[in-house]
Design a protein that fits this description.
single chain; about 400 residues; Aspartate Aminotransferase, domain 1; 2 domains; seven-stranded mixed sheet; about 15% strand; PyrdxlP-dep_Trfase_small; PyrdxlP-dep_Trfase
Length: about 400
């Protein structure tokens, strides 16, 4: 098959057969996606059959630990990292906070600067910026104040003196929507002797990261925005993971995936993350890529997801471009952006979101913790934006429903 089988996809999400949600089109996926059935099934089974201390010699404990290990090994294979280069944590915000403490210890000892952007969600900005209070130099890579574009040409001058050790940037902003050229940016940083930390929270729902292609040293994303449980997933290449001071228990420091996990993991949710691999593998098999190696299966599913999203995004962007009562943040071409569409309106945005709800559109308004990029774009965060976001399980009919609702609420 060359097109995503949307009926098959939607059969994996119980939300689409839930009577309470009938007629409601979900356009707040950037805040958290629906959960796929394999994850729900695994979570339910764990709580019913395996909610014991894992890795003990009795049967229930053995099954619990084996399923946790399965989640790590299968997801790592789908993203092109070694099994112990994947860690779980309570959220991406928490994982980033822990990383910042590790970087603080590293740079306080060895010196050097870091680069941050003003395109990021605050979780991949504030924790790094606070390192300035520890005497670590923080340099800002700034977006275009009209478009929100993060120009790769703006990075080399920040790296020119050779002092930068870490570059932190998003794969995709949760309000700008533009897909940044991660591989190009990582190559630029690497050539200057710097490591890279990529916030993939707003991109991973549109396709799991291919770490071989991206070349990032750190990649973070949230499973609960990627059809899974409320866990943060941290991918970190061994060279950097071993360089940074461990943040977990000292006696776990020799186990790579425990170095940046200060507290014990949520056993049930880690195990349930194996359901994400079940889902990707099922999509690959259904669309003719089931016999491929794990990374190739993931790449095939990624392509299918993106092609579907681009097809659905194009008419929505065309509709918005034809209006003169709003400002679309980010690119107008669907190929260069994720289907996360933030709009500045000529009226308060919260009542518009409420009015859309009356038409069966689930969306919201606010600053979405993207205060810095909104301010850089000249937008009052208190006024906020209307954000409409979808993923590959969204149907053409739902996008049509959204477009009709926008015309009805905003006026033709």
């Amino acid at each position: 098959m060359t097109l995503l089988d949307i009926g098959y996809v939607r059969s994996f999400f119980p939300a689409f057969s839930e009577p309470a949600l009938a007629g409601q089109a979900f356009f707040e996926n950037a805040g958290g996606s629906y959960t796929c059935r394999p994850v729900i099934d695994r979570l339910s089974r764990f709580y019913h059959q395996r909610k014991v201390q894992p890795y003990a010699p009795y049967a229930a404990s053995h099954a619990a630990g084996a399923e946790m290990d399965e989640a790590r090994s299968r997801l790592a294979a789908l993203m092109g990292v070694e099994e112990d280069e994947l860690s779980f944590g309570p959220s991406t915000s928490a994982n980033t906070y822990v990383l910042a403490q590790a970087v603080r210890g590293w740079l306080s000892r060895e010196g050097g600067a870091i680069v941050v952007t003003n395109q990021d969600h605050e979780a991949n900005s504030g924790v790094w910026r606070r390192l300035a209070h520890e005497g670590i130099e923080v340099r800002e890579w700034r977006i275009d104040p009209e478009t929100g574009h993060l120009d790769p040409a703006g990075l080399p001058p920040l790296l020119a003196d050779g002092r930068v050790r870490l570059v932190c940037f998003p794969h995709c902003s949760n309000v700008v929507g533009e897909i940044n050229p991660v591989a190009e940016i990582c190559a630029t940083a690497r050539a200057a002797g710097a490591f890279t930390c990529v916030d993939g929270v707003s991109y991973a729902p549109h396709g799991l990261p291919d770490m071989e292609a991206l070349g990032a040293d750190i990649y973070l994303f949230s499973a609960y925005k990627t059809y899974g449980p409320h866990q943060g997933i941290l991918l970190m290449r061994r060279a950097l993971a071993e360089l940074l001071p461990a943040q977990g228990h000292w006696f776990n420091a020799d186990t790579l995936f425990k170095r940046f996990t200060p507290a014990g993991p949520d056993h049930a949710q880690v195990a349930a993350c194996a359901g994400l691999a079940d889902y990707v593998d099922a999509l690959a098999a259904h669309h003719g890529a089931g016999g491929a190696a794990p990374l190739e299966r993931s790449r095939a599913v990624h392509r299918l997801m993106r092609e579907h999203e681009i097809r659905l995004l194009r008419p929505l962007l065309d509709q918005l471009a034809a209006r003169n009562d709003l400002r679309l943040i980010g690119p107008r071409t669907p190929e260069t952006r994720a289907p996360t569409v933030a709009l500045v309106l000529d009226r308060p945005v919260a009542p518009v979101a409420a009015a859309l709800a009356a038409h069966g559109i689930m969306a919201s308004a606010g600053d979405f913790y993207a205060v810095r990029p909104l301010e850089a774009l000249g937008i009052d965060p208190a006024r906020g934006v209307l954000r409409l976001s979808f993923v590959h399980y969204t149907s053409e009919a739902e996008v049509a429903q959204l477009m009709l609702a926008l015309d009805a609420v905003l006026g033709r």
